[in-house]
Structures are given as C-alpha cells and as structure tokens.
Amino acid sequence: MYIRVTVCIRAQGTRGSRNLLCGAAPQRALCLTAAGTVVDGKLEGRKRGESTGVRKRGVDGRVRSFEEIPHTGRNGWVNLVKFFREDRFRHLHKHMERTFNALGPIYREHVGTQSSVNIMLPSDIGELFRAEGLHPRRMTLQPWATHREIRQHSKGVFLKNGEEWRADRLLLNKEVMMTSAVKCFLPLLDEVARDFCRMLRVRVDREGRGEERKRSLTLDPSPDLFRFALEASCHVIYGERIGLFSSSPSMESQKFIWAVEEMLATTPPLLYLPPRLLLRVRAPLWTKHASAWDHIFSHAEARIQRGYQRLSSSKGLGSKAGAPGAQYTGVLGQLMGKGQLSLDLIKANITELMAGGVDTTAVPLQFALFELGRNPEVQEMVRQQVRASWAQAGGDPQKALQGAPLLKGTVKEILSCC
Fold first, then answer.
1. Residue 214 contacts by C-beta under 8 Å, 6 or more apart in sequence?
2. Structural domain includes residue 367
3. N or C: which end of the chain has fewer CB within 10 A?
4. Tens digit of each residue's pLDDT (9 = 90 or more) over 211-254
C-alpha cells in the first residue's frame, strides 16, 4: 500500500508536499496537543519529562510501530463521505488543525483510496526530508497521471519519482532555479508586476473611498493574485503574454483561466477516488477534470508551436538560445534551443510547471499580504528598503532584489509557513 506523507508547518494547518493544491487561508491559532501547546513548532505548557497521550509513548526514544500512530478512523470510505458531507475539501486547513489538536503532531488518515501520515513539527519534517536522499518518492497526483495515460501524453517532473524525476529536475533547475536563469526572466516578471500594480491603482482610484491620492479599497485579492500568477508564469515559461490584465481579455485567455481554475478545483476530491472507475462510469467530476486538462494541453501545444517557429527563425538568422546578447525566449525557448529533452517531455514539463506554479505563487503572495497587513511596522520597513534599493538599482530588477534583504526574508519566512 502506498502511504502519502504530508507536513504542516508552524501550526498553520496547511500542508507542504508535492500536492500543491491546498490553498489554505492564513491561520495563526495555537495547536493544542495531548502533550501541551505547540507554538511555532515548539512544545510548551508541561514540565520536563511530563507528557500524556501521543507524546508520552515516545519519550523512551524507542521507535514506535506504524500502527501506533494515532488515526482518524480505519474506514477510508466512511471518512470520504464525511469529507464531502462536511465540505472538508474547501476547509482542509481547519480540518487538519482540529485533528492535530486532538491527536497530536503526527497522525494517520485514510480517505477514500489514499492513506496519509500528517506531520506538524519542523524537527520531524526535517528528519523526513533528510531521510529521502537523492531520489525521493512523493505522492503521485493520480488524477493528473491517469489523464496523461489515457491521452498518451508524457509525464513531467510533477508525476515522476526516483532517478527519472532527478534527471528531469536537474535539467529544469538550470532554466528555472539557477541565478543566471533568474536574471534572464526577472525583467519578464517585472513587466507583469508593473501591469498588476497599475491595474490595482486604477481600481482604487475608481472604486476607492477617501481623498484623491489617499483612497482606500477593501477587496478579496485571491482572484487578482491568481491572474497575476498565471500571467507571470506563462510569460516566464512561454516568453509571451496571454493578456489577462488587458481591458478586454481575449476569449482564448478567458477559456484558459477557466480551464486552470476547473483543473485545480476538481483535483482535491479526485485524489481520494479511483480515477479509472470514474472514467468508466463517465462521472461528471472526472469529465470536467479531463476536459480542463485537454484545454490546458491544447493551449500549451499552440504556444510550443509558436515557440518552435520563433526558434527556427532565429536559427535562420544565426542566433542561438542562451547565447550572449540573444533575446530571452522564456523557459520553453531555452529548453527547445538546447535540445536536451524530447519535444514530448518539454511539453509535459512545461505544462506541469505552468499548472503547478499558479497556486504555489498566488497562495504564498496572499499569506505575505496577510502577514504584512497585520504587521504594519514591518510592512513599512520592507517598503522603504525596496524603494531605496530600486532607486539605486537604475532600473535593474536583479540589483534591486540584492539590495532588499527584508523582502527576501519576508518571502522566505512566508514559504516556511505555507
């Protein structure tokens, strides 16, 4: 039986795993366990050596058996019915917070076809990651994998494990994670960020309250952050804009937004159901999910074809992807130009990077706004440092980032919380 391990950091009730779809709202409630109170991952409220419940059984240092991990019930299908009945998929963070409070910082859960071990304490999480080694085995997003199999698409880095995962990951790191790559696509992110801020400024001027230049507006940032993340991801990956911030987005862009939203919304419940069975009975949930993925792949295919045409044109003019002075053509252009992955693998990885990068960008940004909003003195310090750094950078985003350690620290801290 395959066991999924998820982690919850700093009593937030969110999960950190390769399941990137939790999208939980920011929470700062304390997590009360059988052993006392957990605040920011530290146990408080009891004297040394005093413990009850879950923690007491492990104070002798002996490795406990898997069966001794507390759980929410052995019948996965009964638990799944409860999830649907109580709408836990939409409030998963609250369910996890309640369960950590009741069972302690490690618990098991059977839901439908999935079995998971949920971990909260950073020390336990660190030990888990250290034990994974170079070839970790992570949870397979089965609905995504089933779609690839029935449509005969290659699988990307999100759906691989072991040596195959590592080989793709090392190639992608060169175009996504390395400093030289980040320096290339930072101007693209800056362009989208400027348009995003301009759009918000126009909305505040039009709908806000108060005097001119001092207007305020209360809004739910989630939809706008989702669009920002999608526009920025596509610009970096494909090297072209999809026009989500234009005054009248194209029908193609609107359909693409719908497809990504539908895919993300239908994934969580499908994680706990057998996709092949749903496919056989033509369940509406599976049909929606597969149709959304079909549109996402169609959208990616069109951009890959345009990228291939641009690459062919540039080769005809004698330029090469990655050469000094060459125009940056996005992650897609770099991968195609270097030819280290087949076209099928490029399409698979590009599509999954785009789909997996939306929530994982939008949710941390919302966490950051939440934390900065309730810590105005920190917000002002970050703002002043960013303004000063930008003034000294002469319009270079890379230099501006290097001169804003508080901004980097904010992002790093937020990522550790979600």
1. none
2. no
3. N
4. 877 888 888 999 999 999 999 999 999 988 988 888 778 888 88
Q: Hey, what are 180's tokens?
A: 């030289």
pLDDT digits (tens, 9 = 90+) for 85-143: 998 888 888 999 999 999 999 999 999 988 999 999 888 888 888 888 888 888 889 99
Asked whether residue 370 is domain-assigned, the answer is no
Strand-pair partners of 107: 118
Q: Are 210 and 75 contained in the same domain? A: no
What's residue 341's pLDDT? 87
Distance CA 355, CA 200 (A): 24
> What's the number of CA atoms in the CB half-sphere (13 Å) around residue 184?
25
- Is pLDDT above 70 for 303? yes
Cα distance between residue 208 and residue 206, in whole Å: 6
Closest Cα partner for 358 from 176, 232, 203? Answer: 232
pLDDT value, residue 322: 55
Domain holding 202, by residue range, is: 157-357
Task: CATH number of the domain at 216, please.
Answer: 1.10.630.10
Half-sphere exposure at residue 416, Cβ-oriented, CA atoms within 13 angstroms: 14
**pLDDT tier for residue 33 given thresholds of 50, 70 and 90:** very low
Same domain, 122 and 162: no
- 379 and 324 share a domain? no
Q: Is residue 363 part of a domain?
A: no
Domain co-membership, 25 together with 84: yes
Number of domains in the chain: 3
With tokens 């395959």, the residue in question is: 2
Q: Provide the mean pLDDT of the chain.
A: 82
Contact between residue 215 and residue 208 where contact means Cβ atoms under 8 Å apart: yes
Question: Residue 31 and residue 39: Cα distance in Å, rounded?
Answer: 7
Q: Is residue 17 part of a domain?
A: yes
Which of 111, 139, 167 marks a domain boundary?
139
Instruction: Compute CA distances 25 → 15, 43, 227, whole Å.
Output: 12, 24, 18
Say if residue 36's pLDDT is above 60: no
Q: Are residues 186 and 104 in the same domain?
A: no
Q: Are 51 and 171 in contact (CB under 8 A)?
A: no
336 and 206 in a common domain: yes
238, two tokens: 């494909």
Model confidence pLDDT, tens digit, residues 338-358 = 888 888 999 999 999 988 888
Distance of CA 250 to the CA centre of its chain: 26
Domain match, 332 and 396 both: no
Please provide residue 3's backbone torsions phi and psi, each rounded to the nearest 5 degrees: -110, 125
The pLDDT, as a whole number, for residue 32 is 29
Q: Which helix (H) or strand (E) holds 30?
A: none
